[in-house]
Amino acid sequence: MRNYCIRTATPDDLDGARSVMLDTVYRDFGTGYVPRWHADIVDPAAAYLASDRHALLVAVDTDGQVIGTGAVDARGPGWPPNPRWLAERYPSGRTAQLRRVYVRPEHRRRGIARELVARLLDFAAADGGYRSVYLHTDPAVPGAEPFWRSLGTVVHDERQGAGGGQGIVHFELPLGRAAACWK
Length: 183
Hints:
Elements: E1 4-8, H1 14-27, H2 35-42, H3 44-49, E2 55-61, E3 66-73, H4 84-89, E4 95-103, H5 112-127, E5 132-137, H6 144-149, E6 153-157, E7 169-173
Parallel strand pairs: 4-5
Antiparallel strand pairs: 1-2, 2-3, 3-4, 5-7, 6-7
């Protein structure tokens, strides 16, 4: 089993983090880079390193390669494209939104994403200003929906009922979950 290090990203990690993120949106999502959805990927320093309330974590293997990412910021879900009630339930400034929890395929199923999330939740709790933790996922991505269901509660599934949407599933996670033991 390989050993991994999870830590706060530094400017030296940004190219590796960007590579993991872009590979994921092209390979797993099939959308490629979409500026209105992925601007933080192009400039992760501005999105995550410039604010004390935001964070970008990286998982690094023994060779020093970034093999996973996870981020949190203070932006709630926007309306539109999300329902107005969802944006009101998770307002910007009081909502920690988890983003870019991605692990390269050859490193998956080793607890890396779960540990990234645990540390992001600890970060959000330590901030003191967040009242809830929100995220959304595309259930078409293999393994994404079951992973998030194991950690949080579905608050809106766009596949259910009227209203259309893009088939996204929206979750709330408990604020400040303690990090699990991990090797």
